[in-house]
Task: structure prediction
Amino acid sequence: MRYYPLFLDLQARRCLVIGGGTVAERKVLSLLEAGARVAVVSPSATPRLRELAGEGKIELQQRVVQDQDLEGAALVFAATDSPEVNASSAALCRAKNIPVNVASPPEESTFIVPSAVARGELLIAVSTSGASPALSRKIRKELEERYGPEYGAFLELLGKLRKELPGQVRNEQERRRIYDAVVESDVLELLRQGRTEDAEKRLRKITGLKN
Result:
């Protein structure tokens, strides 16, 4: 296994995208969704990237990348249409021990971005270690069908339960039994049917929580 799977907290952390085309735009939008502070360096930029810059949502420098642009970056995405520029940018990142993802040639990357399915706080990621992005997309679509929006709602309820339960149930083993009982219950199915109020009542009955 070449790649080590992990999830990064990029909230308020600076991430640099080198390039201003459609590929770079997709990287920028996903980084913004993760709460990152995004900087883009590219001589040209898509209308959407210029719009985001005008709204103050990203920092945009319309010029060639410079060594100092890498300073303070948690991650770098080299996403220009020039493999040579991408490769040279990746070399700079490696010299500074900054993780870099390269659109082309991908073998210059020190990390890759998996295909992901998000359902609220639930995040399911799939990777073929770069061998077949097409297969990753296929599996992602299958997961999207299997795990609907009810999983996001279910996880929200479980998150609230995890905060409330320790105050009312002191025994750790008993808490674990309750968590397992909820996960194995019909609460998820009730949410799938849109019966949110019934799901919450069922949750309270299983857990015995007062409020």
Summary: Residues 150-207 form one domain. The chain has a mean pLDDT of 95.
